[in-house]
Amino acid sequence: MTTTPENQEAQAWAAGPGAQRLRRMVDQALPGAQIVRVLPLKADAEGADESVKGGGYGAPLRLDVTHAGQPKSLVLHLVTSNQFGHDRRADRAGEVLLAADTFASIPRHVAVLDVGAYRGNDDFVSLAGTGEFYLLTTHAEGQVYAEDLRRIARAGGATALDQERHRTLVEYLAALHAQPAPGSETAYARAIRDTVGSGEGIFGIADSYPDDVPGASKERLERIEAKCLEWRFRLRGKHERLRRVHGDFHPFNVLFDDRSQLSVLDTSRGSVGEPADDVTCMAINYAFFSLGHPGAWREALGGLWHGFWDAYLARTRDSELLDVVAPFVAWRGLVLASPAWYPELLAEDRERLLGFVERTLEAPRFSPAFANEFFDR
């Protein structure tokens, strides 16, 4: 192996960490191949004017090899962490898997030889030939909190046990949101961006509405989206609010066992973001489960709604919460009003939910009392 001045830097990989892994990766893709040299590929090797490209989404390496007596060149693609939706390991995995699934669909495109993941400092796992991914978890005993809310709505009253569980939920969120979260300005900006623009966020949920849904005309959804965009620009710079969050804290992801021990399921969206998301995600269900049960809001669920906000604010002293909650009310309200998620919802109740969303988006500061205008009946 030559070590001329032109390739000394390229050959440094041979003595560095991961060199053995790289040899094995190449040998698996092309049995018997030998690496001759390794070179980093720059995003833009030429140019010193306005056209020069500052960077890309990856850190590719060119691998010059010999195989069956013939010289060949390969490229090892690695997606680097950045603010463009690649800050989570899952994002980077998705980028690589999407490339592996689609490169062959484009004529004259470079071909995929293998796809995989690094394991440890010098090992790797090939995913070639695999299909869908899976997740194996433990099982949580108990009943989803949604059943408690259904029972309260039917009975028109909350028991001492219901009040105890209500306090447990508030205490859980207050403790969770007190935890520092890994991340930066980028992480908070992403949390707000995803709330509005992701497939699971406001835009994606709005797209789930058919054109003929009573109470949810295209024009109405457009107005709601436009207001949410205004809120995105108000919130995205509040990065000091970044906290550890659950990300999908609704009554179907919360369980209580027969001893009222709490378990939670399916943390989402990277588990960091804006605390107002978790608070709203749970609280709005006190309003939602009152629908179809006249008197339930006034006799029970309205009190739990107001108590949830009051108790959380008292525990956390988060004086800014009510200034940032509006787009999260919109998001969760759109989910609850969506026929894709709740096909049995009556048009009049969809009207209440979307009216509440609009009232919230229009106000400079949220008040829990807004809900009384739409659900106290």
Main sheet makeup: 3 strands, antiparallel
Residue fraction in strands: 5-15%
Intertermini distance: 83 Å
Q: Which H/E pattern describes the elements?
A: HHEEEHEEEHHHHHEEEEHHHHHH
Number of strands: 10
Kindly provide the radius of gyration, computed on alpha-carbon positions and rounded to a whole number of angstroms. 26 Å
Class by helix and strand content? mainly alpha
Low-confidence regions: none
The best one-word shape is: elongated
User: What's the helix count?
Assistant: 14
Q: What proportion of the residues is helical, as a percent range?
A: 40-55%
| Subunit organisation of the chains | single chain
| Mean pLDDT across residues | 91
- State the strand order across the main sheet: 1-2-3
Write the layout of secondary structure elements.
Layout: H1 8-11, H2 19-29, E1 34-40, E2 61-67, E3 70-76, H3 89-102, E4 116-119, E5 123-126, E6 143-144, H4 145-155, H5 160-177, H6 185-197, H7 202-207, H8 218-235, E7 243-244, E8 254-256, E9 262-264, E10 272-273, H9 275-288, H10 296-316, H11 321-324, H12 326-337, H13 347-362, H14 372-375
Antiparallel strand pairs: 1-2, 2-3, 4-5, 6-8, 7-10, 8-9
Helix pairs in contact: 4-10, 5-10, 6-8, 8-13, 9-10, 9-12, 12-13
Task: Report a brief summary of the structure.
The chain has 377 residues and is mainly alpha-helical.
Protein architecture, described:
With 377 residues, the protein is mainly α. It contains 14 helices and ten strands. Helix 6 (185-197) runs antiparallel to helix 8 (218-235), helix 9 (275-288) packs across helix 12 and helix 12 packs antiparallel against helix 13.
